[in-house]
Amino acid sequence: MKIAAVRVTPIAIQDPPLLNASGVHEPFALRSIIEIEGENGCIGLGETYGDAPVLDGLMRAKDSLVGLSMFDLNGLSRRIAASGATAQNTASTGAGYADKPDAKVFSGFEVAMLDLQARTAGVPLHELLGGAVRREIPFSAYLFFKFPHTIDPSYASDPWGEVISEAQLVNEARMMIEAYGFGSIKLKAGALRPEHEVSCLKALKAAFPNYPLRIDPNANWSLETSTRLAALLKDDLEYYEDPTPGLEGMAKLHAATGLPLATNMVVTDFDEFKRNLGLNGVQIVLSDHHYWGGLRATQTLAQMCDLHGLGLSMHSNSHLGISLMAMSHLAAVVPNLTYACDTHYPWQTDEVIQGGKVPIRNGCVTLGDAPGLGVELDYDALARLHRQYLECGIRHRDDAAQMRKFRPDWQRVKPRY
């Protein structure tokens, strides 16, 4: 069965002013929505990043996929490489975990092809991937410090308000847990003074004593700061995520503290995975099919983690329901994914699928037996969000530049503290 047509639509989705180690989120986040149509009329869906280098790669490759078998993932890889997408993208971006445009291009198409395969077979994607070991996929409440939306008229109104103090953060957690039923909590740190962020995590521990807690400074704390604060955090954390830069730094921190360390920054491909085995810098890998090279590659990662005794969970970025469902179907088939996954989904108000947002109840996305991903495009919403992309003026994410609108002397420095 051949591919008859491929469509890529860039969209912009509203995003709140969430603080992080790199600055503050812009009013819009960019995504790319992919449709791969088979000769049988079935359409597979994919979603990936929408920043200019990734979008350029998607556009360069898409027409070359017409005529390819919908089952030929090796052919997909070859045609992407032959299109020049990988070379163009690599030249356009710097190195680092956030910059894997070739993997992001491949994964977007791969998810759409797998969705098409599953729809053609009339089975849910988790069945195509090997069979679900769980149907309820747990996610974690993902907390951010944030500016009020009134800081700039470009931001849409939101119910969260300013979140800087301990009391404001506890209220944010309570609102999110009441709305979605999450059973664990992650705090995005690295934005404010470390001592204040630790106090906020302590306040969360007091308010939710039975909830597993995580803190993620995004490598914005020095090794000295990370080690010093580990003594304060050690009894409160499920794991300590990317507190300090570099795999070597993480290895020194683990050796000094014994705390389980997690990452989505220093183990993001199989070369880094191999190096980590020698250093023992990271004990939990936060996978992300968008930049690990798709769902199948992430299944390989899961097997490697199981072989070497490493824990496994999932990283998230601003995304919509297609990516959430891809994450959920993948999580359903990975036996050793034993930590609740990250998701930004509660922060997003826009959606591109029919029926609105994917339900999260009791902290979980529940998978059924609908073919493929189990969601369908809302073409009116797709058109609206594409217009939003055309009008927003953003083509590259730049949290640092956005922060300088409010604090002109602010510079991105890592580690800052």
TrEMBL record:
The active site is at residues 188, 315. InterPro entries: DgoD-like, Enolase-like_C_sf, Enolase-like_N, Enolase_C-like, GlucD-like, Mandelate_racemase_C. The lineage of its organism: Bacteria, Pseudomonadati, Pseudomonadota, Betaproteobacteria, Burkholderiales. One of its GO terms (molecular function) is metal ion binding. It catalyses: D-glucarate = 5-dehydro-4-deoxy-D-glucarate + H2O. Signal peptide: none annotated. Belongs to the mandelate racemase/muconate lactonizing enzyme family. GlucD subfamily. This is glucarate dehydratase. It comes from the Bacteria. Pathway: Carbohydrate acid metabolism; D-glucarate degradation; 2,5-dioxopentanoate from D-glucarate: step 1/2. SUPFAM superfamilies: Enolase C-terminal domain-like, Enolase N-terminal domain-like. The keyword Transcription does not apply. Residues 166-260 form the Mandelate racemase/muconate lactonizing enzyme C-terminal domain. It holds the Pfam family MR_MLE_C. It comes from Pandoraea anhela. It is an enzyme of class 4 (lyase). Its EC number is 4.2.1.40. Coiled coil: none annotated.
